[in-house]
Design brief:
By secondary structure, the protein is an alpha/beta fold. Helix content is 36%, strand content 25%. A six-stranded antiparallel beta sheet has the order 9-8-11-6-7-10. It is globular, with a radius of gyration of 24 Å. 39% of the residues are buried.
């Protein structure tokens, strides 16, 4: 090996490109942080004549938008009561905020087996390991999760334990899958806090009346099942269906690519399930991809069984379109996209592809994993058509049951490491949708191996690495 080879012009140019790309990424992180501060300041700019009583800090950590929605409703109700409220995402929180408020509400989600939402990374690394003097501080923590996971409220529990360790008086309430009765308990606790703060404000000015029932579910609309197709006939895995719904009154609710649709099935009306929306409004219908799940005793899953075989064509169901702010395109709509997923997670990626095709963009790379190319080439003809038309720049599919070979999406990323780095240098954003176990964890490990821990953290903090994994 010669020195000329080690410091060749090509290698120097490549190194310079990586340094420039990382500097640009850091600048982007700073810009996004500044925009968040501006947005937060605007949200918390309350007229002085409405600011009475002790200030209340409302903090949220949200992966799919549910925690953020509850936090915003809680903050809105408290402001209507004439109270001073500071609403913050957890990545915008520091110990000075806590020191400046005697009371706080925390609405935080747990993802998978005890993980914090992606945007909580800075808080987990920089705040939780430190100490703060919170003696005299009163905190209520609402921990959202899904009891299908053993540690379904672990992040909320971690925050509550930290608050107590710092001297705060803190109570924890865990809610399983947005259980209505538990949410009503939370509503009662926030109402009690509002009354207490109104009492502390004295009687210098008349205070607005307290609305008892303010935590309302998003408005649902009736949809009619127009079509249902089996997308993987003959597959050795679970059957995967595409369902197309049309608005019963002909008027679709508004949504963006990346958003979710929520519904309750007749056998379990108290628990709503979320599904990624695979279509865009321009398609004229709402499409979802549903995998038929099977429980340990061999019986079909309650929700997937009804959607895949129970509900009949022409029947109606109440659907609620729900904003999924952390998985929307936002200002990433003008960036190249690396879209990674498996199974029914293709739905959330299809919506982004369709939105960008409608906008005239084709700079997107789809990496998708399934079992067999013979039976599981989901939407294969459509994807190939987009690829030939230049509406997808690159398409890689990984097959985990292709003869003697087992290839997963993370294997594709490792094999295409140089290409992945080039896309990131171009300013690409990474969206991951699908199963957390196996795919989501494997992709995250592959990204860190290819790009490095610091780059992955910077991508996360700047909104250029977004996940919807379950």
């Amino acid at each position: 090996m010669t020195l000329d080879w080690v410091v060749s012009p090509a290698r120097l140019a490549g190194a310079a490109g990586l340094v420039f790309a990382y500097a640009a990424l850091c600048a982007r992180v700073a810009w996004v942080a500044r925009q968040k501060r501006i947005d937060i300041a605007r949200d918390n700019d309350v007229p002085g004549n409405q600011a009475q009583g002790p200030a209340v800090l409302v903090v949220y950590a949200s992966q799919t938008g549910q925690a953020e929605g509850i936090a915003r409703e809680s903050a809105r109700m408290l402001r209507e009561c004439g109270l001073r409220v500071t609403l913050l995402p957890i990545d915008g929180l520091n110990k000075a905020h806590l020191a400046g408020h005697e009371r706080s509400l925390w609405i935080v989600s747990t993802t998978g087996e005890g993980d914090a939402p992606d945007h909580a990374l800075r808080f987990v690394q920089q705040v939780l390991p430190t100490n703060a003097d919170l003696r005299g501080h009163h905190a209520q923590v609402l921990a959202l999760g899904d009891r299908e996971y053993q540690q379904f409220c672990a992040f909320g529990e971690q925050i509550q334990q930290w608050l107590v360790a710092q001297g705060a008086n803190s109570e924890l309430l865990c809610v399983d899958n947005m259980d209505r009765a538990t949410l009503q308990t939370w509503q009662s606790r926030v109402n009690a806090l509002a009354r207490e703060c109104q009492g502390d404000a004295g009687e210098s000015q008349p205070l607005p009346a307290l609305r008892e029932d303010w935590l309302l579910a998003p408005a649902s609309r009736m949809f009619t099942l127009q079509a249902r197709r089996l997308l993987n006939p003959g597959s050795e895995g679970g059957a995967l269906y595409g369902l197309d719904w049309v608005a019963a009154n002909g008027e679709l609710p508004e949504w963006q690519s990346g958003d979710l649709v929520s519904l309750s099935v007749p056998a379990d009306p108290e628990h709503a399930r979320d599904y990624s929306i695979a279509s865009i409004m321009a398609d004229g219908y709402l499409q979802m991809l549903v995998r038929q799940s099977t429980r340990e005793d061999g019986t079909p899953g309650v929700a997937s069984g009804w959607l895949c075989t129970g509900v009949q064509i022409g029947e109606q169901c109440a659907l609620t379109v729900r904003q999924h702010s952390s998985f929307r395109l936002g200002d990433n709509a003008r960036r190249p996209l690396v879209l990674i997923g498996n199974g029914s997670g293709l739905a959330g990626l299809l919506s982004h592809i369709r939105a960008r095709i409608e906008a005239g963009r084709g700079d997107q790379w789809l990496v998708y994993g399934e079992r067999s190319p013979a039976q599981d080439a989901i939407c294969g003809e459509q994807l190939e058509q987009w690829l030939r038309a230049g509406q997808i720049e690159r398409l890689d599919r990984a097959w985990s049951r292709d003869g003697g070979r087992r290839t997963y999406v993370q294997d594709v990323l490792l094999a295409q490491a140089d290409e992945l780095r080039r896309w990131i240098e171009r300013g690409a954003t990474i969206y991951v949708c699908g199963s957390l176990q196996g795919m989501g964890q494997g992709v995250h490990a592959a990204l860190k191996q290819v790009l490095g821990d610091e780059c992955v953290q910077a991508l996360t903090q700047s909104g250029r690495y977004r996940r919807d994994v379950y």
